[in-house]
Design a protein that fits this description.
By secondary structure, this protein is mainly alpha-helical. The protein contains 16 helices and no strands. Helix 1 packs antiparallel against helix 3, helix 1 runs parallel beside helix 4 and helix 13 packs parallel to helix 15.
C-alpha cells in the first residue's frame, strides 16, 4: 500500500513530465490520432507525429494520475491526510487545473478538502480568465455545491424590512415544488384559473422587452463543445438556492446574489442587474402560468375565453414568455378565438420572424 507522501510525489512527477496541451485539433486530426494509437507504423507528417506522441503521453499520465487522485481523496475522507499534506495536495490540484491535466479529479479533491483550503483554491481558479473556460465552469459547479449551505441559511432568514421585487399576488402564491417555484403544478383547485389570471395581469410588462429573456432552464447540450453553456445558468442556480420562494425575491437579496456571482467569477457587471433579474424571474413565473393554463383551458375553455388568449397576445407582443404564451394558444388551437389570436400574431410584422413562424405553424 502506498503512502500519502508517495501519492503526492507521483502527482508532482506527472505534472513535471506532462507535455503541453495541444491546440487546434480538427475532427480529421482526431480520427487520424485514433488510427495512430492502433497502427504503430502509420505514416504521418513530422508535425503530426510529434503532436500525437505528446497527446498519447498526456493520456498515459492522466490515466495513472487519476488513480493517485482517487487514492488521495480516499485518504482525505478517512482522515489520513495531515494538514501539511492537505496544503500540498491543494497546491498540486491547482497546478493540475491550470495545466488542463486531470482537472476534474483535481477539482473533486479540492471540493473534498472543503473550507478553507479547497475553497480558497477554487475561488482563485473561477476568477482567473487564464484558466480553461470548461475547467473554470467545472470548478464553479463544485464551488457552488460547497457554498450551498450558506445560501440555504440565507433563505431561512426573515425578509422583514426588505424591498420586494415581485407583485403581492406573486409573493403570496402557494408553492409545491422542492425549491418552491412550481406553484402552478399544484393539484387543480377551483381558484387556480383565477389565480393564474391575476398573476399574469400583475407581471405583464408595460412595454416590449429590448430582448427576449432566456428560459428558466438551459436547453443546450453540455457534451456539445459548440453549444456553449451560458453563464446565466450559474446565476440561476445560485439565485434559486438563495431565493427558493417568490416572497424572498427582494432588492437586498438580489444585490447579495450579484456580489456572490462576482465572487464566483461570473460577469454580472452589467448595469441594472437587480432589476433585470427581478423582471426575468417574473417572466419565468408568467411562463409557468401559461403552461398551466394550456392544460386547464383545454379541458375548461369557457373559463379562460377570451381573457387568457388576450393576455397571451399581449405577452407575445411584449416578447415576454412568448414561447409559453404561444404554447397555450397552440394547445387550444381548436378553439375559434385562440385561432383568431394566432392569426393576428402571425400577421404582425413587428414580431420576431421565429415568433410569427410558430404562430403560423399552430394554425395548420
Amino acid at each position: 500500500m502506498t503512502s500519502a507522501r508517495s501519492d503526492l510525489d507521483v502527482v508532482a512527477a506527472a505534472l513535471a513530465a506532462v507535455p503541453p496541451v495541444g491546440y487546434g485539433w480538427t475532427d480529421e486530426m482526431q480520427d487520424l490520432f485514433e488510427r495512430f494509437l492502433r497502427e504503430a507504423d502509420l505514416a504521418l507528417p513530422q508535425e503530426y507525429r510529434q503532436k500525437f506522441e505528446q497527446q498519447r503521453e498526456r493520456q498515459r499520465l492522466s490515466s495513472s494520475t487519476h488513480e493517485v487522485w482517487w487514492s488521495l481523496k480516499k485518504r482525505l475522507e478517512d482522515g489520513d491526510l495531515g494538514s501539511a499534506e492537505q496544503a500540498e495536495a491543494a497546491e498540486l490540484a491547482e497546478r493540475c487545473v491550470r495545466a488542463q491535466f486531470v482537472a476534474h479529479d483535481a477539482v473533486s479533491l479540492l471540493h473534498t478538502l472543503g473550507r478553507p483550503v479547497g475553497e480558497e483554491v477554487l475561488l482563485r481558479l473561477v476568477r482567473d480568465p487564464s484558466v480553461d473556460e470548461y475547467d473554470r465552469a467545472w470548478a464553479r459547479e463544485w464551488l457552488i455545491r460547497m457554498r450551498r449551505p450558506d445560501y440555504d441559511a440565507r433563505a431561512r432568514e426573515s425578509i422583514e424590512g426588505e424591498e420586494p421585487l415581485l407583485p403581492a399576488v406573486v409573493r403570496d402564491l402557494p408553492v409545491s415544488g422542492p425549491r418552491g417555484w412550481e406553484w402552478y403544478r399544484a393539484p387543480e383547485t377551483p381558484d387556480n384559473i383565477d389565480r393564474a389570471r391575476r398573476v399574469l395581469e400583475a407581471l405583464l410588462p408595460a412595454e416590449r422587452l429590448t430582448r427576449p429573456e432566456p428560459p428558466p432552464e438551459w436547453e443546450g447540450d453540455e457534451d456539445d463543445e459548440e453549444d456553449e453553456r451560458p453563464e446565466w445558468i450559474d446565476v440561476r442556480i445560485v439565485q434559486r438556492d438563495m431565493m427558493p420562494y417568490p416572497r424572498l425575491v427582494t432588492r437586498e437579496r438580489m444585490t447579495e446574489l450579484q456580489r456572490e456571482c462576482e465572487l464566483l467569477g461570473l460577469d454580472v457587471s452589467a448595469e441594472g442587474f437587480v432589476d433585470q433579474w427581478g423582471t426575468r424571474i417574473g417572466i419565468w413565473i408568467a411562463a409557468g402560468a401559461f403552461h398551466h393554463l394550456g392544460f386547464l383551458g383545454y379541458r375548461r375553455p369557457d373559463e379562460v375565453t377570451p381573457w387568457a388568449m388576450d393576455l397571451a397576445q399581449r405577452y407575445v407582443e411584449c416578447d415576454a414568455a412568448a414561447d409559453e404564451a404561444l404554447y397555450m394558444l397552440s394547445y387550444m388551437n381548436e378553439h375559434p378565438y385562440s385561432r383568431e389570436v394566432l392569426a393576428r400574431l402571425a400577421a404582425d410584422t413587428s414580431l420576431r420572424p421565429e415568433v410569427r413562424t410558430r404562430a403560423e405553424g399552430a394554425l395548420r
